Amino acid sequence: MKINWNYPTTVWVGENRVNQLYEACKNLDITNPLFVTDKDLINLSFIKKIIAENSKKLNELNVYSNFGGNPIGENVEEGVDEFKKKGCDGIIAIGGGSALDVGKAIGFMSAQKRPIWDFEDVGDYWKRAIVDKIPPIIAIPTTAGTGSETGRASAIINKKTGVKKIIFHPKILPSIVILDPILTLELSPRLTAATGMDALAHNLEAFCAPNFHPMADGIALEGMRLIKNSLLNAFKNGTNIEARQNLLAASSMGSTSFQKGLGAIHSLSHPINSQFNIHHGLTNAIFMPYVLTYNKSSIEKKIVAICDYLDLEKNFESFLQWILDLRISLKIPNKLSDVIDCSTLDLDQLSQMALEDPSTSGNPKKVKKKDFKTMYEYSISGKLFR
After folding, report:
1. Closest C-alpha among 18, 157, 156, 145 to residue 92
2. How far is the first Cα of the chain from the last one, in angstroms, to the nearest whole number?
3. Same-domain status, 205 and 123
4. d(Cα 148, Cα 351) in Å, to the nearest integer?
5. In angstroms, rounded to a whole number, what is the distance separating the alpha carbons of residues 281 and 330?
6. pLDDT average, residue stretch 27-40
7. Among 39, 93, 342, 351, which is most buried by a count of CB atoms within 10 Å?
8. 150-184 pLDDT tens trace
9. Of the candidates 167, 183, 199, which is a domain's last residue?
10. What total number of domains does the chain contain?
11. For residue 374, is pLDDT > 80?
12. Whose CA is closest to 195, among 140, 169, 234, 237?
């Protein structure tokens, strides 16, 4: 299957569409791109092949890969320096969420005079940006989770404060996205699980967010259905092309729908990700049932609607049990204490960071600092809200 979409941006979908990367560059008048991927992917054979093939076609293909998961502001600054030094005119970002976030941020910041933190997703900060010199961005995900390829933001850690910041501007949205399931076939079961649960968290929190956005609701519902039907299949059989394609679509749908809002799952995750360098999708999966049960009184009707669409028994408990069973099947740890040493955690500090996270405003139930502290405590002990 090969098909093109035009929402929320130009999206080329199907097997081996990455072979049309040069065509995408031509469409955007990119002749000297900066190829952005992370330090782990740069040595993989399929990445080397993409670089080699397109280096022959383009005038020049420069590479920046000096970063890993949970990138920091200095990574973006270094990439911007490379972009300018090499006279680049576009970005090709390929990899998981971190690589896509860094690539998008490099493209955006290459046109700016202010520091990156001046564009945090707060109020109208995005209006500070210089927009006429932002270069075109091509995004190619190799995981199906963050949906960064169809997002208008990048998640970057401020090393000085240890806080993960959401850098937002509409022009950060890539001009062309390539969703090629072939690039996800070698994804390990562990990463398939974590990224798939990340996509589920995006669609779930978007649907439960209190704002009026029926378009986002419809996208989020179908995104959850695709995940329900495909995540376990891809986890058990990584070469299942249809499942891999469905998960890529669901991932992009999650980031498209969460412009409606996110919630406390992400608020709890971001401080842990920034301080412990743990995969974002994994922490989202761990926190999911604790936040669901905390929010129950405010989301029960919406959860019943989800159950109806997903062919589950139409009550909150059946949905919660599906989540718990899915995590077991995917070998997702039940508690935060299963993945990090929680004995020295400063829960007051983490709770304050969670409270200040931009995602908190989208939670369907009002959350105070003490509530976040309780959620952290429950996620450590394994106790659910009842």
Report:
1. 18
2. 46
3. no
4. 26
5. 12
6. 96
7. 93
8. 999 999 999 999 888 999 999 999 999 999 999 99
9. 183
10. 2
11. yes
12. 234
Q: Which of 183, 208, 238 is the last residue of a domain?
A: 183
Query: In terms of domains, do 340 and 204 share one?
Result: yes
Same domain assignment for residues 150 and 195? no
User: The domain containing residue 175 runs over which residues?
Assistant: 2-183
Of 9-13, 62-66, 68-72, 189-193, the one with minimum mean pLDDT is: 68-72
**Structure tokens, 258:** 């969460």
Q: Does an H or E element contain 251, and which?
A: helix 241-257
Domain-located, residue 234: yes
CATH code of the domain covering residue 165 = 3.40.50.1970
Assess whether 156 and 210 both reside in one domain: no
User: Tokens standing for 346?
Assistant: 């400063």
The answer to whether residue 297 scores a pLDDT higher than 80 is: yes
Q: What is the pLDDT of residues 192-233, one digit of tens each?
A: 999 999 999 999 999 999 999 999 999 999 999 999 999 999
Residue 59 has pLDDT above 80, yes or no: no
Residue 330 clears pLDDT 90, i.e. is over it: yes
Q: What is the pLDDT of residue 385?
A: 95
Closest C-alpha among 61, 8, 43 to residue 179: 8
Same domain, 194 and 153: no
Tokens of 42: 């740069």
